[in-house]
Each structure stands twice: as C-alpha cells, then as structure tokens.
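Schema walk-through. Below, the input block comes first and the output block second. Nothing else is stored per chain. Lengths vary across the set, and this one has 604 residues.
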Amino acid sequence: MGVYQDGIAKNAVDGKEVVAHLYEYTAQISIDPDLKVKSADRKIPPVQILFCLKEKNKKKLNSHRWFFNAFGPILNPNVCVLLDVGTRPGNTSIYHLWKAFDVNKNVAGACGEICAMTGRGCVNLFNPLVAAQNFEYKMSNILDKPMESVFGYISVLPGAFSAYRYKALLNDAKGNGPLASYFKGENQSGDMDNIFSANMYLAEDRILCFELVAKRGGQWTLKYVRSAIGETDVPDSVPEFISQRRRWLNGSFFAAIYALTHSINIWRSDHSMIRKLWFHLEFFYNFISIVFSWFALGNMYITFYFLTRSLADPAIDPFGNGWGDRIYEVMRYLYIFLMCTQFICSMGNRPQGSKATYTMSMIAFALIMGYMLFAATLITIRSLQAAFGSIDISQDAFEILQTVVKNAAFRDIIMSLLSTYGLYVIMSVLYMDPWHMITSFVQYLFMMPSYVNILNVYAFCNTHDVSWGTKGDTTVHSDLGVAKKGDGQVVELEMPVSSADINEAYDEAISELSHKFQEVHQSRSAATKQDDYYRGFRTRLVMAWIGSNGILVALVGSADIEKKLTMADGSNAYLAGIMWSVFGLSLFRFFGSTIYLFFSLFGH
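--- output ---
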C-alpha cells in the first residue's frame, strides 16, 4: 500500500535509542484476500494512514497506550475502532459501528458480532474444537450480548473488534478515569503484589467496560451492533485452546468479582434512577452466574451421577442382567480418574507438553457425555410414557395438562430441555441464523464436560501465571573456570601434581573440618517472594474450590441427605432446584434478547 518504506528506519538517533518508527502516507488502493489490487479507478477513496512500528514487542496494551495517550490528544478523534490482527470485518461493519455512536450520543462503546472463521465451504467445522467455539460464539451473540445491550452494560467489548468514543475514555483533571484504570495492568504487569489485580487485568477490556458505565458524572452506555460482523481465527489445536481459555477464564472471573464489589460506583454517575436500578438487576444476574460457574464442577458430576446411576436401576436398565450397574461403575471410576489426571497435569504441565493427555481426556469426556445423553433420552421417554399413561381421555385439555404437569420427572426434564436446547433453537430461528444448530451443536454438546472439567481446572490451577504467554530468559552462572581445547581433539586441564600443592590442599581440608559449620541464612529475592505468594494464593484458591464442590457432591450424593432431598413424588429436590434455576436464568436471557430484537426492528 506504500505506507512502509524500507531503508529509512534507524536504531538510534543522536545517541538515543529509537523506540518506534512512524510512517505517514495517503493510500488509495485496496488488496482483497486473493491479493488482487484495487485502486482509484475502482472508486477506492483516499485514506490517510499513520503507521507506528514499535521497535520492541511490548504487547497490545502498550500499543493502545501509544494510540490513546500519544496520538489521541493530537488527532482528537471522535470514535476509535480497535481491530486485532487476524480479525476480518465485513464490508460495512465499521460503518455500522460508527453509526451507533452517531445515533446515540450517550454510547461510549460498541461491539459487533464476532464469528469464528469457518473457512471456504465451512471446512474448518470438521474440527470439533472450531465447531464448538463457533456454536459458543453464535449463542453468545444471540443471547448474551443482546441481553446486556438492553441494560446498557456489556460485560466485555471484545478487543478483536470494538469501538469507543474517545471523549468518554478520557481521564479527569486528577488523572482518574477509564484510561487510567485500563493501563494500570500494563504499568504493573508481572510486578503486582496483589494477585487478584494481576489476574483481573488479564481481562483489562472488562475493566474498561465497567469504568465507562460507572464514570463519575457520566451517562455512558455500551451497545451491541449485530449488523457489524467480524470474523476471527480461533484456536484449532488443544494446547492453544487451553492456553487461551486460561487467560480468558481467570481474567473474566476476577474482573466480574471486581465489577460486583465496585457496583456502588454506579451511583456516582449521572445515570437516571431507572438505569441505575437496571444495572443492579444485571449485576444480580451476574452474581448468580458466578455462583453457578463456581459450582459447575460439582454440578456436572452430580448430573452425571444421577443420570448414569438411574440406568443401574433394574426397573430402567435397558441392557438387562445388571449391565446398567456395571457400566455405571466403570463410568464413575473413569470420571474420577480423568478428574485426578486434570489436576495433576494442570498443576505442573504445560498444555503444549501434555497434548496427548489432554486430547485423550477430551475424547473420554465426550464418551461420558454420550452415555449421559443416552441416559437422559431414555429417562425422558420413560417419563413421557408415565405422564401420558395416566391421562384419562375423557378429561378436557386443561385437566390433561394438569395431570401431565403433576408428573415431577416429566415436568423437570421438559423445563430443563426448554431452557437449554429449546432456547437455542427458538432464539436462533428468531434471529434468522439457525445454521450453527445444524453444523456445530452436536460438537459443542460433546465438548461441554471438557469446558467444565478441563478448561476450568487448568485455569484455576494456573492463577499464579499472570503472563500472556511469554517467559523471561534463564541465566546460568559459571564460576568453576573453563576447560580449554588445545591442538587436535584433546582437552587440556591443569592438574595439581607437585607434592607441595597436594600437601597444601590437604592442610586446607583439615583446617576446614576443624572449624564449626555456620548455617548460612538464605534470603529470597523479591521475584522469588512474589512467585511464592502467587503460588500460595493459587493453592488456597484451588483448595477452596475443590473443597466447596467436594462438600456439595458429598452432601447431595450421601444416602441420608438423598433421602431427605427425595420429595413425595420421587424427584430429587436439589436437581429440581438446579433445573428451575437454569430455567429462570434462561428466561431472563430470553426476554433480554427478545427485547433487543424488537428494538432493532425500529432502528434502536
């Protein structure tokens, strides 16, 4: 495009080290993915480009600091669009993002729909990892982002493709504000004594979103723009996928806690009373979601336990001759073995070094999920038969409905199915984007245990690692002298051969033995102390996480407690509570997403 010019850049100027190179050019050409050049004759408008090339790679936050703190005050832009390398916006996506700011003066930030790159002919979807992420991205863009946009606070505007109003980002006269909070992570990255903050700033864009809506004296809101589409490349290998989610999960978990504990800051803004109450309603929803994510490990095992154990009942056993009970025992021991494997690998191994172990674990969890789905399907069929078998055809429709609903097992299962799979189908059809249900839903379904049991375990077991993936060099100190290579292939060593030298060495050894040994107190360096503190926090957090989930499993799975949880109709009160809680959360997302869709029809 003519922006970069080779041979101009220098490493130093007048004895001063160069930290960045700046190129300015007005380009009027465009290059498509097939490397075909389009120029002014194709009505390509001229675009002025400032290209800042840093001398050293100091990560994304440092690049953003260059833009917002160095170029921003000079250019004084209205809207700033952030676009990651590897993300391809649609032809009109940037326009639609800008339009959101033009229509509503209170919009401080906006994001578009991030889609996974599926390749030509969707060939990438043959990779289960890519397909699962494609489904995850799609449902987030259909359920979560629209719901949050209705409230005015989106928990995260993806850094891959988002936009901000520059005026809303600026700090106040005292230097406090969104940008100050945003760049705090770069200033102290790797040196923070507070590991909570260190993990929190792994998701610095989440902190920025909260600081914008809670800005003192402001009325800023965040908006989701569905028509602004951006495709991004997603991890297609197990190690890369696990490493990426480690940073995402830890950053989002601690950033969410930060937002909840600082939710009172909303009251220092100039939002209306109704808007502030709306924010607190969303905060309550986020709190419930955090609680569910904390206990997801235990609830996944409890679901597995009750589903697979139900097939061990001779009255339901589809295999006969006690095979249902045998399969249940094998599955249970396999599940426990896999969980032990995850904690062992996560505490000491890198995903890149344990690729085979993690891959086999994902396959094994997929097999367990397949058996769980088989058990759930069989129980649903039996519940349907029991529910409709008790119907009196002489009753009217309302009485028949009452009879069916009184069947607890049928009622709970139907509510659970409607609140998950039914919600996915209904909202995908309403948004006229149902294809991921066909191409990616099955892969996501079989990956669900891995999301909980592999990704969460690795993330929590590595909270001490607050890096973005790069490590420092290891220095080896040598103080024993060297062995010099002489002529030929012989190594020359100077050996003590004279009697005087040998006797002197012997006398020194005897003298050393006669002296009393004094213990040398070793002091830890600051880096070692910080690393010990981080690892200690990690250990306590994992112990609390395992302990709380273990207590939950022990209580719900114990025979005495299970009897108390068994209601008169034979259903389990805890499972029923979980199912109805999921139904309530799903209903909340459904209404939020539907309201967004309704408003979008009128251009809001």
